[in-house]
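dumping this here so i dont lose it
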């Protein structure tokens, strides 16, 4: 009996490792596929609502136009904010160079030599390689979104056919699990993105007001960046907290102001994450903080920055389907999702 349980546990672990390795190796295929499925869960209900007012083809086109508009708007706002911040930093390059040299001199006085290492690492060849890699990543990003949109179009067209195929080619029990899990997942992911949107708007507006209050340059840009970054759990919030404070220290040269800004933004993120989010979502999105961190770092390792964003939705998806599989419900307790 014990040998059978041990074999079953070992087989489960090996299966999970094999799935993770497949996700890592097949990232070019699976990463855009998961994003497409995520987007379909958000826009499929919109498409179905639009079909009450227009034909199916027009409803699909309208849903796609809305999706592309959201993507373009967020991307444009992010690039605008980053460009403005970078131009401000570049316009004051001599000051930052002076700060850097002062920091290097302080390190060398304390027995830490970095000038030689910097000269060996950052040179013209390094800059050329960096520009080449940036262009390559831009091309990969465009390809990623092109493949994702192709998946989304196909899924929106075929979603009803897929539902009928599941009912036709699977048993009643399996079909019920898939349908119940899918509807539960759609509900939870829509709630998840709604909560994140509300908290992101709150964060962006508050960062803008705080920046205006303390006289920090680029207040609107910092607010836009905080709004966008807040959609990335944990990591995005940390970046949105520390980068404005670091900019205030380097650009304005006021350590006290930087500390005040850092403390205020930290309290802001704490209120958003520990008060506003639970009040809106209730127990529907309950997950253990440990599981959230594991999901973020695991999928970041597998799929990079995109994994940082999609890690928590994947954990939500697992909990949604496990909730409808009696033999696997013990996982809900492990994930901290009981009662969700």
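and the seq i came up w/
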């Amino acid at each position: 009996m014990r040998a059978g349980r041990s074999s079953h546990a070992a087989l489960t672990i090996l299966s999970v490792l094999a799935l993770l390795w497949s996700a890592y190796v097949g990232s070019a295929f699976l990463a855009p596929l998961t994003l497409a499925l995520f987007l379909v869960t958000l826009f499929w209900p919109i498409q179905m609502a639009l079909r009450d007012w227009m034909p199916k083809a027009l409803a699909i086109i309208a849903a796609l136009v809305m999706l592309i508009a959201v993507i373009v708007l967020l991307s444009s706002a992010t690039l605008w904010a980053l460009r403005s911040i970078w131009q401000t930093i570049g316009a004051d390059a001599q000051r930052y160079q002076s700060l850097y040299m002062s920091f290097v001199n302080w390190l060398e006085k304390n027995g830490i030599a970095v000038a030689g290492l910097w000269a060996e690492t950052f040179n013209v060849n390094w800059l050329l390689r960096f520009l080449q890699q940036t262009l390559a990543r831009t091309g990969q990003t465009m390809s990623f979104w092109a493949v994702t949109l192709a998946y989304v179009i196909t899924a929106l067209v075929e979603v009803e056919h897929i539902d009928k195929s599941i009912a036709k080619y699977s048993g009643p029990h399996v079909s019920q699990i898939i349908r119940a899990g899918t509807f539960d997942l759609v509900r939870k992911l829509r709630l998840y993105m709604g909560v994140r949107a509300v908290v992101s708007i709150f964060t962006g507006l508050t960062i803008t007001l705080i920046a205006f209050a303390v006289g920090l340059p680029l207040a609107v840009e910092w607010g836009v960046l905080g709004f966008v970054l807040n959609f990335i759990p944990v990591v995005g919030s940390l970046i949105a907290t520390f980068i404005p404070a670091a900019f205030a220290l380097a650009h304005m040269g006021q350590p006290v102001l930087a500390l005040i800004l850092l403390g205020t933004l930290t309290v802001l993120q704490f209120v958003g994450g520990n008060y506003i989010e639970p009040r809106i979502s209730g127990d529907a999105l309950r997950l253990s903080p440990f599981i959230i961190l594991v999901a973020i770092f695991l999928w970041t390792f597998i799929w990079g920055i995109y994994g940082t964003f999609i890690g928590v939705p994947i954990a939500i998806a697992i909990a949604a389907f496990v909730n409808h599989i009696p033999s696997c419900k013990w996982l809900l307790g492990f994930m901290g999702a009981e009662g969700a």
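The chain has a mean pLDDT of 77.
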